[in-house]
């Protein structure tokens, strides 16, 4: 089992993290302190207590970085991973990798603990109580194996859906034990992908269909290399007919991906686009992304208009919108620009 950092974050360091708010500065301090504690040589008394099976009460079982999209949580997680390696082998995985496992949670956690000294889990999701219960099982097993878990999420543990829908044991674990055993750190601030210079190699056009389509046609004419044009219906069809890993492998063979007429009608639409955009954002060989839409991405799927599972997906979709702003220069196109685009 090989669980390595995505290419985008392999150069992440504490030094390159630029905190913009007091909470981000505090998160940086806590992450550095956690690394220092893990790398510290234990005293003879601590080693004796470990041999006798006594837990080290000074060191939490892990870190849990929680905050909105675009505040640098994944950067801090990757920087922690980089600071610990190679002295301590670190597994780095997205929560979707964990939730795709078919073996029991404790078996997966034992297999992970056999190979790695630290587990870094990025983007813990909240849209499926069954997966959250699976996560609880992995966390318990890793703690029993003395493998620290470092995680990022947009929500605090006690806000998981499983705390409302799960059984009593899972509810107690997520509401109280995680807070007691993990250092939960808020990472607040503005979305850096919207406020600072980022790569934005692609383009997004928002406005009347004829104007945005003309802008996209011009971009397609200017593009060189392998390109594919999809309508949003084509994207929905592809995500239905093709396994996700196979689909992403196919898309990263392109130089340009054009998606025309993005319109989110329901939770299913949002989730399909979310999975594609998030995968491309993290892949080192992703094509340039172009899209057209009648409305700006922030208006596609508003969490305030949803409840329950749909609200959970909508809140997660906010991260996808943030990543679209990193991947694409998004601008409105007026009807009068149609002949100029």
From TrEMBL:
GO terms for cellular component: cytoplasm. One of its GO terms (biological process) is cell division. One of its GO terms (molecular function) is ATP hydrolysis activity. InterPro entries: ATPase_AFG1-like, P-loop_NTPase. Keywords: ATP-binding, Cell cycle, Cell division, Nucleotide-binding. The keyword GTP-binding does not apply. This is Cell division protein ZapE.
């Amino acid at each position: 089992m090989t669980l390595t950092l995505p290419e985008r974050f392999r150069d992440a360091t504490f030094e390159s993290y630029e905190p913009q708010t007091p909470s981000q500065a505090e998160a940086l301090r806590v992450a550095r302190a956690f690394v220092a504690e893990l790398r510290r040589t234990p005293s003879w008394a601590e080693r004796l207590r470990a041999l006798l099976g006594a837990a080290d009460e000074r060191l939490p079982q892990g870190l849990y970085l929680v905050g909105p999209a675009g505040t640098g949580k994944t950067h801090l997680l990757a920087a922690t991973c980089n600071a610990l390696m190679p002295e301590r082998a670190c597994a780095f995985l997205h929560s979707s990798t964990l939730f795709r496992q078919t073996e029991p949670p404790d078996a997966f956690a034992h297999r992970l603990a056999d190979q790695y000294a630290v587990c870094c889990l990025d983007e813990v999701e909240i849209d499926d109580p069954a997966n959250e219960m699976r996560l609880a099982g992995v966390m318990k097993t890793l703690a029993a194996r003395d493998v620290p878990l470092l995680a990022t999420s947009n929500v605090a543990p006690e806000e998981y859906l499983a705390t409302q829908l799960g059984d009593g044991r899972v509810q107690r674990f997520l509401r109280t034990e995680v807070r007691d055993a993990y250092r939960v750190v808020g990472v607040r601030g503005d979305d850096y992908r919207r406020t600072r210079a980022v790569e934005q190699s692609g383009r997004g056009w928002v406005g009347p269909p004829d104007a945005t389509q003309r802008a996209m046609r011009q971009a397609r004419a200017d593009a060189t290399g392998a390109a594919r044009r999809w309508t949003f219906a084509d994207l929905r069809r592809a995500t239905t007919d093709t396994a996700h890993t196979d689909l992403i492998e196919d898309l990263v063979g392109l130089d340009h991906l054009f998606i025309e007429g993005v319109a989110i009608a329901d939770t299913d639409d949002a989730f399909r686009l979310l999975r594609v955009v998030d995968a491309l954002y993290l892949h080192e060989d992703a094509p340039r992304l172009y899209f057209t839409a009648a409305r700006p991405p922030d208006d596609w799927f508003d969490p305030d208009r949803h409840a329950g599972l749909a609200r959970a997906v909508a809140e997660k979709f906010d991260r996808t919108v943030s990543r679209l702003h990193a991947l694409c220069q998004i601008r409105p196109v007026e009807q009068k620009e149609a002949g100029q685009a």
